[in-house]
Write a structure and sequence with these properties.
Blueprint: H1 2-11, H2 17-21, H3 24-37, E1 44-50, H4 55-59, H5 64-74, E2 85-91, E3 96-101, H6 103-106, H7 111-126, H8 130-148, E4 164-166
Parallel strand pairs: 1-2, 1-4
Antiparallel strand pairs: 2-3
Helix pairs in contact: 3-8, 7-8
């Protein structure tokens, strides 16, 4: 029954649903927060929103975590000099946040720490406070990265700061 409910949620999710939660001003604020954050550490943060998955993927059991790993690869978040990329992935149809850290970060920061950030973001989302949830989450991620990855003399911006809206069925 759960599988059918999830499948229907993805099948009937309007393609514009993400815009209600993330209007242009919110996307601009997220981009500015990421840009400012990356001046305080040597990590790289990407934020991606996917409205829904193709119904056939949901039926086959593709989870938010599995999809986040794919998006991490497609967006080349792993392709940073110090393996210090972090993807914050939101699957709107499932109200699911997944945080994927590259191996350089994963060696120093536990998965439980990222799960705590994701849970606080999800709590804000349940209250309809998407901007606050993302901005607070970016703040928490930044604080963690500042501790483990201080900025060096050379701190290039290796990944785009603009939130990515993942097209339906993107591969």
């Amino acid at each position: 029954m759960v599988k059918v409910k999830r499948w229907l949620r993805h099948l009937f999710m309007p393609p514009w649903a993400w815009r209600r939660a993330f209007p242009q001003a919110t996307l601009d604020a997220i981009e500015a927060a990421i840009r400012e954050s990356e001046t305080r550490h040597s990590g790289e943060i990407r934020f991606a929103i996917e409205n829904s998955l193709p119904a056939s993927w949901v039926w086959r059991g593709v989870t938010g975590r599995h999809r986040a790993l794919e998006v991490f690869s497609f967006l080349r978040v792993w392709d940073t000099e110090h393996n210090s990329g972090v993807l914050v992935y939101l699957l709107m149809a499932d109200h699911d946040i997944e945080i994927i850290a590259d191996r350089g970060i994963a060696a120093r920061v536990s998965a439980a720490a990222w799960e705590g950030v994701a849970q606080s973001m999800e709590a804000a989302f349940r209250q309809g406070e998407f901007a606050r949830g993302v901005l607070d989450g970016i703040g928490q991620i930044s604080a963690t990265l500042e501790t483990h990855f201080p900025p060096g003399k050379r701190n290039p911006d290796e990944l785009p700061d603009r939130p990515m809206i993942v097209p339906h069925g993107y591969k």
